[in-house]
Amino acid sequence: MNNNHKSITEGFAIELFLDEESESRVLAFRDMIYRDGVKPVQGLMNDKPHVSLAVFPKVDRGKLLDVTAEFAATLTRFNFRLGAVGTFPTSDNVLFLYPVPSLRLLEVHAELHARLFYAGMESSSYYRPGNWVPHLTLEFNIAREELCQSVGIFKENFTPITGEFTQLGVVRFRPIEYLGSYDLRRSSL
Q1: pLDDT tens, residue by residue, 64-118
Q2: Domain residues of the chain, as ranges?
Q3: N or C terminus of the chain with fewer C-beta within 10 Å?
Q4: Closest CA to 161 of 10, 22, 1, 20
Q5: Which residues of the chain have pLDDT under 70?
Q6: How far apart are CA 169 and CA 23, in angstroms?
Q7: Residue 175 has what pLDDT?
Q8: Do 67 and 119 touch, CB atoms closer than 8 A?
């Protein structure tokens, strides 16, 4: 990404959702940065903490839901670890938690994109294998000073969050509308 990159402000996304306990910990950390002065944007959008696997400015909604449901039916829940904080070098001033890119996360991402390709659907280039930076957005459009302050809060107060991805969902965004949510199977082990 570069400073000229414009984020997609309307469209659709396929997202991995967290287990309830991990989601609560992410929201508690988000609330901490709000209490310290960051003005909520993402936090006012009915946004569930998530990791986006694919984003589309325009797409056939029905086809997207079908491909996502079929793919979700093949997946079992899998673990993640949110271990670092980051920001993109864009004017959007995004603050995110960085999931350790486990082999399983990368496999799920690549397999989804293969299915999308075969279905004739192409995600934003920033979300394709080889370009994708896995991330869980805490907030965006943060004032520069607040962004630096938030990184300091992270350094002083954050401990890694481990959990499980439990659902795959499809959302339309801005405003956020949850179009489909598919539970991932529990492992039989």
Answers
A1: 999 999 999 999 999 999 999 999 988 889 999 999 999 999 999 999 999 999 9
A2: 11-180
A3: C
A4: 22
A5: 1-8, 189
A6: 15
A7: 87
A8: yes
CATH T-level topology, domain 11-180: Cyclic Phosphodiesterase; Chain: A, (3.90.1140)
Q: Quick check: helix, strand or coil at residue 13? A: strand
pTM over 0.85: yes
Strands 161-173 and 11-18: antiparallel
Which amino acid would we find at residue 12? F
| Euclidean distance between CA atoms 146 and 151, whole angstroms | 9
Output the CA–CA distances (angstroms, integers) from residue 56 to 47, 100, 110, 121, 149, in the order listed: 17, 24, 16, 9, 32
Task: Classify strands 136-139 and 11-18 as parallel, antiparallel or unpaired.
Answer: unpaired
